[in-house]
Amino acid sequence: MSTTRRIHVQADDNVLAQSMRDIQAEMKLPLAFPAEVEAAAERAAANPRLPALDRTDVPLITIDPPESMDLDQAMYVEHSNGGYRVYYAIADVAAFVSAGDPIDLEANRRGETLYGADAKIPLHPKVLSEGATSLLPGQLRPALLWTIELDKSGEISSIDVRRARVNSRAKLNYAGVQQLIDAGSADPMWAVLREIGELRKQREFSRGGISLPLPEQEIDVVDGRWTLAFRARLAVEDWNEQISLLTGMAAAQLMVQAKVGLLRTLPEPEPQSLQRLRITAQALGIDWPPAQSYPAFIRSLDPTKDTHVAMLTACTTVLRGAGYAAFNGELPAQPMQWALAAEYTHATAPLRRLVDRYTGEVCVALCAKQPVPEWVLSALPGLPATMQASGHRARQYEKAVLDLAEAEVLATRIGDIFAGAIVEVAPNDPRKGVVIVRDPAIEASVSSASALPLGADVKVKLVEADPVKRTTRFELVG
Q1: Cβ pair 362, 376 in contact under 8 A
Q2: Which residue positions in the chain have pLDDT lower than 70?
Q3: pTM of whole model > 0.85?
């Protein structure tokens, strides 16, 4: 399966724009911020609460997609005492937003930023999220500065987070940094990040954690032209992700020790779910020795092979049931994030996710040996429901936009034959399933007169591509 092909959509900009507005209207999404929220954001942006501690000496950088302006995190890593030191600055939203003010109330209604191609619906007004609060380069910013010490194996040895003034040195992007790394001309810090990232992945494996390396389906919009592609992740993205996961685990560790806070949880799958996956592997002809653990099996799969993509797709069925658990005085009955094989929380994206502002405040208070603010404690019990609802809305929006893009790409090609691979078969009807088409990069429903061959390379005919209904459907050929 191709992971680099990219197609261009020659659709009318106005048609696509109207289709996006239709999706937003159907879902009753909040678009423009109320006037009082924008006014409050303008005032807040002009009057940040800067902390006394000055850590502008730390040479932080940000690394994100090139178009991103809502920069939540800035990072610097170095060797320290035979191990490593991680500095991770997180945008301090609470330096601009107060509990109960118009910005706070609107953020609690929204829950998180919604992403749909170039139609982003932000959690906070842009004067904050892409301006005064964002960790843009060369700007003095208030931040929650995490300092996490790791031993030589990559295990946490100490944790500290406190408010500080910071100044990011540069706004970098993944592709540019990866090119420098591959050319051997990158700053030495990236070699340290690589060491930490690989060590943390080894720690994850030793804990029994997993990640599914499925190719990512992306929509890009450049000058009004939509493109769809399956994109392979770059190595530097994986290393950077490990820093975010590390910080989420460090935050969870602080909160679990103090028995107050909020965790991101995922229950362990039922044994019969894993047994079904073993049957799927057998059907696909993939060897899964009885003594091999599920995490080790996942790591043996190659996402460039169609049968293995089908297997990875099947494996997503056991990663369901994620939620949030708030607690104060007594730990949740089930505190673990099973896929990480660790306790974990969301703490690194407060510009884009409401809950991170609250978990950050809990951790700052705990490290300062101060009481957790009452406005945080009073909000904790309601946050799981707020985030579950906003997460559901975000997934619906992303899917609707992707469905629109796929149908728009293929609207003029009804009856054409495409090469693809069957990656999913419906458990209640083996004649229905999901096909991944190589060119253009499409994942859509497929049907057949007989049972679909899971994992097989196939030819499929496009029988429906309706941008109005946002549906795309194929039939198996032969």
Answers
A1: yes
A2: 1-14, 117-118, 221-226
A3: yes
